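Internal ticket #5521
Category: modeling
Description: The requester needs a full-assembly model to guide mutagenesis choices. All entity lines are attached below as received. Residue total reported by intake: 483.
Assigned to: D.W.
Attached entities:
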Amino acid sequence: MISPGRSWREFPQRYRLEAAKCETCGKIHYPPRVACSKCGGTTFENITLPREGKVVTFTIVRVPPAGFTEQTPLPIAIVELMDGVRIMVQIGDLADPSELEIGMPVRLEFRRISWDGEAGLIFYGHKAVKS
Amino acid sequence: MSVGIVGYGAFIPRRRIKLEEIAKVWGADAPSYRRGLQLNEKSVPGADEDTVTMSVEATRNAFARSGGIEPAEIGALYIGSESHPYAVKPSGTIVAEAIGATPDIHIADFEFACKAGTESMFVAQSLVKAGEVKYAVGIGADTSQGAPGDALEYSAAAGAAAFIFGDDDERILAEVVETYSWTTDTPDFWRREYMHYPRHGSRFTGEPAYFRTTMSSAQGIMEMAGLEPRDFAHAIFHQPNGKFPMRVGKKLGFTQEQLETGWLSPWLGNTYSGASPIGLTAVLDIAKPGDLILLTSFGSGAGSDSFIFRVTDRIELVRDRAPGTRKQLDENQIYVDYGTYAKLRGKIRMGE
Ligand SMILES: [Zn+2]
């Protein structure tokens, strides 16, 4: 389970979809990184990702790790957002996992991602839902 | 200088359960429940939805309709709910962080059964009126539960509504004309600490609680403002089921036409703190400039907040900038069976 400290440090990206745009080459990193994977640049502009996109590929996890068991089966997808950035997200609100298909238009909504049992912390972030 | 709503938004989960599906499990007579409570179906939150997630989405919709208010300009944010995800750890902190309104902000979670939402609206608009903050957000949201088999299980639903209040005339889409509260000690509904489900005084919840409180509040505000039912284009009342809001509205002298736009409970259920506020969003979705709107909540315990709003020209410019409430209610539903519902609502005890 994620520690309170680590989850707190990740709030900007998880809660507000903040990403780092390399000031040298323009590559957008989500989650943000210390050095650009393309040019090695270390100065970034803080940008907010758009909330609309489409499914590029997906998998359905049927034996999820602790914290996710109540969400079985757990669909996870690579979503390409409107600005071309690809992110890995859970897919929410599917009546049946068979509804999930490549190219499906989605929007990111604020949801519970996982939770540490009945007494522990609740971890929030974004899931993609059919738009 | 006037104070009013400068942005509004609703969020309704996509899952629904039909009244028949619940009645079937408990051997209850669905047609008589349907007639008696005037309920057809209700919203059900997913395992990943709660008061915080719905509040964030409703508030984002309110910002979309605000015409560019920056989250950092929000000086206060209040959430009224009886289903805050944490017993200790304010829902408002998470919502404010998610919308980017921290750290220069005053936050509090409110509780008052089903009227906690209008309570947060009341305090938000009061702070703006006092000049303490530039903008303030008032939210009503709940994922309420009824005990399995109890009458409340047919109505307890999930949803949220958020309102940004401000005093800049060019942004006000509905001006606050008058506010009034009416409160007594009336033990009609309660939940003790550590209990999962509430208890209620059965028939006592009707006449002395809901009807007396709601009518006194609505009559009180109309008297203060020198207005009568016929002066209003729309009236919205708390909706614990489909029947009560229509009955109280008609007893007060309103017509079906004045009541039906904000009357969502037959398809939405009772969203508790979200109930009358979500009704207000449905009314704002179709209201015309100049319309007068009466909003009267009810919270067991018992009290009622009333507001009179006057809609401005701005409504027509901003209402389509976020998903309409009726659209969220009527489209893309996912119908679940009782087994799925019981799992999603945590009614099944899990091993450690
Ligand atoms: Zn770079």
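Resolution: model delivered.
Comment from assignee: Residues 206-225 of chain B form the longest helix (20 residues).
Ticket closed.
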